[in-house]
Amino acid sequence: MDKTTEEQIKFYYQHGKGSIQDLARIYRVSVDEVLRIIGESNLGTVTTQGDMIDASEVGPGATISHGKDFKVPFDVS
């Protein structure tokens, strides 16, 4: 993608001229690409919370979840 298109996407987003999904659809790029351009790549994933107990409370041999990162499935159709 050229710099002019990136600047247009940034400008339109910063001035409230369309949602992230709208800009992705109009410029025919992925939502992840728009997120990268506007500096919000972190919005492409969510982190689930892990177990809220300490390993010493569960006992030996127990499996504790520390949370996981999941990619957000965007659809612009």
Please describe what this structure looks like:
The chain is mainly α. The protein has 4 helices and 2 strands; from the N terminus they run H-H-H-E-H-E. It is rod-shaped. The protein starts with a helix and ends in a 6-residue tail after the last strand.
Fraction of residues in helices? 40-55%
Which strand order do you get reading across the main beta sheet? 1-2
Taking the sheet with the most strands, its summary is:
2 strands, antiparallel
Shape: rod-shaped
Q: Note the run of SSEs as H and E.
A: HHHEHE
Query: Multimeric state of these chains?
Result: single chain
Overall pLDDT: 91
Low-confidence stretches: none
- Class of secondary structure makeup: mainly alpha
Helical stretch tally: 4
Q: What is the count of β-strands?
A: 2
Percent range for β-strand residues: 5-15%
How would you briefly describe this protein structure?
The chain is mainly alpha-helical.
Comma- or semicolon-separated keywords:
4 helices, two-stranded antiparallel ribbon, mainly alpha, 77 residues
Please write out the topology:
Blueprint: H1 3-14, H2 20-27, H3 31-38, E1 45-47, H4 55-58, E2 69-71
Antiparallel strand pairs: 1-2
Helix pairs in contact: 2-3
